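Support case: HAH complex. Customer-provided input:
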Amino acid sequence: MRGSRDFTEPALKNLFAADFKIGAAVNPHTIRSQEHLLAYHFNSITAENEMKFESLHPEEHVYRFGAADELAAFARKHQMAMRGHTLVWHNQTTDWLFADGKGGPVSKEILLERLESHIHKVVGRYKSGIYAWDVVNEVIADEGEELMRPSKWLELAGPGFISKAFEYAHAADPQALLFYNDYNESNPKKRDKIYTLLKSLLEQGTPVHGVGLQAHWNLFDPPLDEIRAAIEKYASLGLQLQLTELDMSLFRFEDRRTDLKTPPAELLELQAQRYESVFRLLKEYSGVISSVTFWGAADDYTWLDDFPVRGRKNWPFLFDEEHRPKAAFERLAGLKV
Ligand code: HAH
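Agent response - structure generated as follows:
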């Protein structure tokens, strides 16, 4: 780990200061192990897990804000912006929320009341620290003709829970920018479904201000022309865009190889070329893209270690395991418009 005096490269946040914020997902461990790197290169953070429903609200009458507060204090200490992630999701949500306490499912009315009170409490608490929230995460179905993914939310409350969540969040903090966030966002079929959802929310007058492109990408996918088409399509709705969870896996999604213990030079070179072309494209759209957040900061820690392939490390970021700039960083530092 490098101390703050060792940074001689230009700061990432300054390289893109005229374009968008540069963020990283953090957790209570990485705000310590990566503190200098984060403070030097990034001007925004997102809690990787600590603001999800199961972390903040494990039981009906119990909120646990300790870890989330620590991350918010880190942002304050380093004068960074903070995004909130995430209020409504089908994962990492505790079972009590959907249960009536007598062994059955909760009614729609009570589920929505619980949602309102959760959002009120959480968004209210971080009003001064969090400028943007992922209000609803991943409700669109990946495959098939169905628009929405099956979930407890859909089953018990019907599709109306989506607008309700945005309305509750807007009431709790009228200043906050409210996002719909999803992955595979550049895939043409899923993109069109996300667009359909957003368009209908806007037509209903739902307070949605932006779309989060998670951007869990790899060296080969999605193709640049699909990323461009997705940006254009979402922007045509008049929404602002943010890349919310960017990483650049060295492996195709279907690739199961587990033999690599260090990243091969040729893959790091491909990664550098890929980051360069992606950021060249993002800069073209800096008028509509307000922030680019990586889902981590350096290769010593990524959620992609062991996921989706057990026993496989990944190296998706611009900084290596020692927090030194990789070839990909050098390419971004050399980007000329
Ligand atoms: C994201 N889902 C989530 O938004 C984020 O909260 C989490 O920490 C990591 C990734 C992406 C995803 C997934 O988790 C599983 C399958 C597909 C996509």
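Strands lie at 21-26, 44-47, 81-88, 132-137, 177-182, 210-213, 216-218, 240-249, 289-294.

Case will auto-close in a few days if no follow-up is received.
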